[in-house]
Amino acid sequence: MAEIKLESVAKTFGAFSAVKGISFTVDHGSFFVILGPSGCGKTTTLRMIAGLELPTSGRILLDGEDVTALPASARDIAFVFQLFALYPHMNVRQNIGFPLRCQNFSRAQIRKSVQEAAKLLRIDHLLDRRVGGLSGGDRQRVALGRAIVRRPKAFLMDEPLGALDSEFRRLMCGELRELHDRIDATSIYITHDQLEAMAMADRIAIMNQGRVEQIGTPQEIYDRPRTMFVADFIGAPPMSFLDVHTALRQGDRAVTIDGASVEMPELFEDRPEGKFALGVRPENVSFADGSPLRGQVIGAEYLGTTQIVTVRSANGQVKARLPSGKAVRVGETVGLRLRPDKLSLFDTTSGEALSSALDAGARHG
Amino acid sequence: MSTVAAHSVAEPSQLAKTIGGMLVATYAIIAILPLLWIFLTSFKTPTDSISYPPKIISESSVEGYVNLFTTRTRQTPEFLASLPPPQTWYERLVRSRNMVIAGPSKVVPRFINSIVIGFGSTFLAVCLGTIAAYAFSRFRVPLADDLLFFILSTRMMPPIAVAIPIYLMFRNLGLTDTKLGMILLYTAVNVSLAVWLLKGFIDEIPREYEEAAMVDGYSRLQAFFKVVLPQAITGIAATAIFCLIFAWNEYAFAVLLTSGDAQTMPPFIPFIIGEGGQDWPAVAAATTLFFLPILLFTVLLRRHLLRGITFGAVRK
């Protein structure tokens, strides 16, 4: 168990800057997920923490100790690779015991530790099998076994479920989190799948183009996205944006869209006239016949308990999550009601959210 | 009833299979026939070996092998009669040709030379090749492509084209007719092949294996020995066979640079002809002994060889 701290860590490959000075702290025993689209720098970040890449600048601290220049072997960190990296020339027992063999443990100790790890992962019946014949899930468990067997300071996982089919992935998600809690580990987990991230993380860092866009609990990130990228990346379907062209004043509690006044959380900053976007999650949109904000239904997706209805308004498309029982006709014009306390306002030039009572809720509640 | 296309791409027709099989068989016969003929000749008597029309089945004799392993001198019948009776079957055989055994021939030391030089240079070439290939495969080597091309370019001319410079170099360095010299020479020729073949094999081993080992506490060198080498062993075996075949069969440099101490089998075999007339069974016996180890090797490791040959054809 350890605290992992990154201080403006950057990495460039030739002219390409993969990670542009990021900082964050992963607390003792927490499950930290780095989420982002492919190519956002998340794997490079993880590899730097593991010691497989050397940062171009910045510092990495493990339990307060500067490990930036230490080789991977000296960091006492376990890494689980997407493709498992099980050694094909060894059986399951040898694979799990491999990290211990280099630390000069006695045979009896290795046997005992391997047995314990295998039992924890429920693969003790597979110990003498070759890894070639194992199913994806079992291979994943062997890879995890190799990671936990020596009780390292931290676990780093690079899309460990990416190679599994979706059914297994959901099962392993639960198992991974349970394992993390049982061995009281500090884990950093990388994925591009927001559902995995939401399901497992204590805290999530969202990365985009080598930068951290936002760090927070799954709820904070979902409810109070700091940037339009986060708002768009998280949620299925993502947040909808309505164009707003106006000047804003501190204390405003509403904006005018297409002549209709829409209530929103109290604004904490002044902005000159410009382009803004009002972001709303589908579940915070409902139909209200009397609402002045109007749009035309252009499609509906049936999802079982709910349906996602797409409405085109003069200021952009809005997706609404409605009970599936509600009858919606494509082509009809409807009034839209947006839940006032859940709206975010973004500056479309910088993509950043404007400070409002929405954040205050985060700080005080 | 559905009609099945007669000329399916996936499944060759019976006729095509038969023709294909016949072609392969014909080629195999053409390729094997000389070897078989040499093998048969090695067990013929000298008379049968040069009879015309050639005898396919003849009286079998091991005279060729006896002659190969011994040096003999012709004696008068009076001298032969004065000698004590022959002690062994091969002495008796030699006496029957009016000769006595003067001592062992040079075939055993020559064969040992071939083994030392062949395996020595193969070992060196594969060691250097593996290390170089690993570096090219895993590290950002400056000018890697140019270096690889440079390594390959040593193969772009027949090695014998540089025979004279090498001869002069060897003479100045005192490497002429030494095993070390021949090992170095064959290593230099083989190392380019080894680097290129092995780079392909090592490229195929995912980096994650070593990285996993390094995170688990192993140094890069340990990871290389414990994780990379065991997985590259097939490729190393295939490469070793290619290198060995070259070093084993090489004739031109061996003739030029060796005459005694370091002479290998290829220049030695034609030398047999000169010694006691045209002793074809002895030549055939030497050739048989010479090709058997490689034949055996190749048959045993043919699967690896095939993988080595087709390698690169199915890269991602």
Describe this structure in words.
The complex is a heterodimer of chains A (365) and B (316). Chain A is of the alpha+beta class and 365 residues long. Chain A contains 9 helices and 20 strands. Chain A has helices at 42-50, 92-101, 107-120, 136-148, 166-183, 194-200, 218-223, 228-233, 357-364, and strands at residues 4-13, 16-26, 31-35, 57-62, 65-66, 77-80, 154-158, 186-191, 203-208, 211-216, 240-248, 254-257, 260-263, 271-280, 285-287, 294-302, 306-313, 316-323, 333-338, 344-347. In chain A, helix 5 (166-183) links the parallel strand 7 and strand 8 (186-191). Chain B has 316 residues and is mainly α. Among the domains of chain B are: 2-41; 108-271, MetI-like fold (Orthogonal Bundle), CATH 1.10.3720. Chain B has helices at 14-41, 46-49, 63-69, 77-82, 89-95, 107-138, 144-153, 163-173, 179-203, 207-215, 220-249, 252-257, 265-275, 280-300, 302-310; strands at residues 70-74, 99-104. The longest helix of chain B has 32 residues, at 107-138. The radius of gyration of chain B is 26 Å and the shape is globular. The chains are: A alpha+beta (365), B mainly alpha (316). At the A-B interface, strand 6 of A face helix 10 and helix 11 of B.
Q: Quick one: overall form of chain A?
A: elongated
Order of helices and strands of chain A: EEEHEEEHHHEHEHEEHHEEEEEEEEEEH
Unreliable stretches of chain B: 1-5, 312-316
Largest sheet of chain B: 2 strands, antiparallel
CATH topology label of the domain at 108-271 in chain B: MetI-like fold
Order of the strands making up the biggest sheet of chain A:
6-7-8-3-9-10
The rounded distance between the terminal residues' Cα atoms of chain B is 41 Å
| Number of DSSP E strands of chain A | 20
- What topology, given as strand order, has the largest sheet of chain B? 1-2
Taking the alpha carbons of the first and last residues of chain A, their distance comes to 29 Å
CATH A-level architecture of the domain at 108-271 in chain B: Orthogonal Bundle
CATH class of the domain at 108-271 in chain B: Mainly Alpha
Structural class of chain A: alpha+beta
The topology string of helices and strands of chain B comes to HHHEHHEHHHHHHHHHH
Oligomeric state of the chains present here: heterodimer
Please report the total strand number of chain B as a whole number. 2
Q: Main β-sheet of chain A: number of strands, strand sense, barrel status?
A: 6 strands, mixed
Q: Using a beta-carbon cutoff below 8 angstroms, give the protein chain pair with the largest interface and the number of residues from each chain.
A: A-B, 23 and 16 residues
Mean model confidence by pLDDT of chain A = 89
